[in-house]
């Protein structure tokens, strides 16, 4: 099978297309013939080597990047419960640091618990963008434990994580204050934000102008960290996505979210699938590129300004 590997850390050019033996599913696992794999910022961190800051005990290379895959099950290991079968169209969230590595490959083996069916009405490229980013937000909202009617601010609201944060927060009954550039205002409005403020260095001050007591929490997809703390009420919370845990101030609690802690939480994955199916979550594909152009996809992502997710096509 073809796979995209990282044999040494570096720029996009280190991504190589290689031939590897087809993986075989063991007990409680399934094998997926991948049609689409999403390119996430985590993949860039892995390729560049910056991931070592977040995962101190990295296994040795080579690595296959990618945490989001969509495709068709072509083999089922022993011990399954019958929920998944050969021929099912599915999505999976996987880890590049597990025994079967990541999603940038023609075939991926994953625990059955990390696999759910494709949301009805979604094509495989769009479906591949769902699990990792939406699960990250779900973990953050669960950590905050906000009751309906409370207010959450979302930074980086036009991005993939930020967009899911708006949709999931609204589904939880929360009031959402979001940031946006003028070019992204209409997008963030469509996603459902209640209040939209101009992004930039003065965001915390602008939030205080519309929420004088401070917001109950921030989902910090833009990684503003200490810059956004003044917007949060005393004793509030901040969800962070790359391990930042403070220091904070005024009793504010930081909640660093690590999606790897919930890759086999099938109930959460099923709920996200259902929400995408009924339109509570919006799946956004920025562009689909052939798998052989993984390096170009990484260049585009690092250049910034991508709205939605880039997707690698492994169907050829």
TrEMBL record:
What Gene Ontology molecular function terms does this protein carry? NADPH binding; oxidoreductase activity, acting on NAD(P)H
- What InterPro entries does this protein's entry cite? ADH-like_N (IPR013154), ER (IPR020843), GroES-like_sf (IPR011032), NAD(P)-bd_dom_sf (IPR036291)
Keyword field contains Oxidoreductase: yes
* Ranges for domain Enoyl reductase (ER): 10-312
For this UniProt record, give its keywords in alphabetical order, as a comma-separated list: NADP, Oxidoreductase
Give the matching SUPFAM superfamilies: GroES-like, NAD(P)-binding Rossmann-fold domains
Q: Show the stretches that span the lipid bilayer.
A: none
NADP among keywords: yes
This protein is called: NADP-dependent oxidoreductase
Tell me what organism the protein belongs to: Nannocystis pusilla
Classification lineage:
Bacteria, Pseudomonadati, Myxococcota, Polyangia, Nannocystales
